[in-house]
Write a structure and sequence with these properties.
This is Transcriptional regulator YvhJ. It comes from Kroppenstedtia guangzhouensis. The chain has 9 helices and 14 strands. It is α+β, with helices and mostly antiparallel strands. The strands form 5 sheets. It has a 6-stranded mixed beta sheet, sandwiched between helices. A hairpin with a 2-residue loop joins strand 8 and strand 9. The longest helix has 30 residues.
């Protein structure tokens, strides 16, 4: 009798496991959208998830997956070093003035890269990746792109996210007002989107907005890698399949989740890119201006995290002055916040 019970139990487990595997595989296949290239031009060879790698997180300004014309509302680079169990994350403001790839030399807001990618037939996502690569002189190995609906559904699927609201403010989203009070808060999908999109009422402008974006994305990633999420896999898969695109193979997704889970919170470092907002141009367009010196500083930090040779922005060998040498964090030590723009 016990043998029969155990047999039925094992068959049930195998059946449920097979269902989950099938569902995950189908969702991954549905959202898989490779870049129009084999590897980054800034890599000598292809890498694996055991090597230091980068992921570009892109939030678009459209609500649905079938929208053809989109711009990047969020651009976040995550430089992951599995060997050191550390991540360095950088948000690039959407108004950043940059040279756009495949545009015959056009310089404008970095969030216009998808438009020029479509026009040049390179592809909107591939062109966004190449523009970020050239702006920072680092390779972008993987990307994940999500639209508004995908973000909302993903947050709801994991039961919401916990944040610490920095100050009281109101935000209108999709014809509805949302109120936020200073202090700890638990947000559903619509509330989380309103929380990360507000910038006009933030005294820090785009910088404050970027901080809230990082806070919510890290909270969402923590929820997605928790054991509790397994019970909500169906809802999460619907959000992923319909509203997210990426160039990650199934085994890479599993490796990425495993790597992220192993990294302690005190080894997740947020980099801040310094610049100034300005309308001082013939068109009176609002840009976020970043100096070449600042781009080189950020590039040096990220290249060191990726264990790549240090280079200038145009790819020449580079030795930074000792005062600007990025600090190396030893294994087992806590990261500290300095005065060099790293939070």
């Amino acid at each position: 009798m016990w043998l029969r019970i155990l047999t039925v139990f094992m068959v049930g487990i195998i059946g449920v496991s097979s269902y989950f595997i099938y569902q995950v595989w189908a969702a991954a296949e549905q959202s898989f959208d490779p870049l129009n290239r084999d590897k980054s031009d800034k890599r000598d060879k292809e890498i694996t998830m055991e090597d230091p790698f980068t992921v570009l997180l892109v939030g678009t300004d459209v609500r649905t997956a079938d929208a053809k014309d989109w711009r990047s509302d969020v651009l976040m680079v995550a430089a992951v070093n599995p060997k050191k169990n550390s991540i360095k994350m950088l948000s690039i403001p959407r108004d950043t003035y940059a040279a756009i790839s495949n545009s015959n030399g056009v310089k404008t807001k970095i969030n216009s890269a998808p438009y020029y990618g479509t026009r040049s037939q390179v592809g909107p996502m591939t062109n966004t990746v190449q523009t970020v690569e050239n702006f920072l002189n680092i390779p972008i190995d993987y990307y994940v792109r999500i639209n508004f609906n995908g973000f909302i559904e993903a947050v709801d699927a994991v039961g919401g996210v916990d944040v610490n609201v920095p100050f009281d403010f109101n935000m209108r989203l999709f014809y509805k007002w949302y109120s936020f009070k200073k202090g700890p808060a638990h947000l559903n999908g619509h509330e989380a989107l309103a929380y990360v999109r507000m910038r006009k009422s933030d005294p820090e402008g785009d910088l404050g907005r970027n901080k809230r974006q990082k806070e919510v994305i890290q909270a969402l990633m923590n929820q997605m890698t928790s054991v509790k999420t397994v019970t909500k896999v169906d809802d999460l898969l619907k959000a992923v399949g319909n509203n997210i695109s990426h160039n990650l193979e199934m085994n890479q997704m599993i490796a990425l989740q495993d790597t992220y889970r192993k990294i302690p919170k005190d080894r997740m470092e947020t980099l801040e890119i310094n610049g100034e907002n300005s309308k001082n141009n013939p068109q009176g367009v609002w840009y976020f201006l970043v100096s070449d010196q600042e781009r080189l500083r950020i590039s040096t930090i990220l290249r060191k995290q990726l264990q790549l040779p240090l280079e200038t922005l145009d790819g020449q060998p580079y030795t930074p002055p000792q005062s600007q040498e990025p600090e190396e964090i030893d294994e087992g030590t806590e990261e500290t916040t300095g005065t060099s723009g790293i939070n």
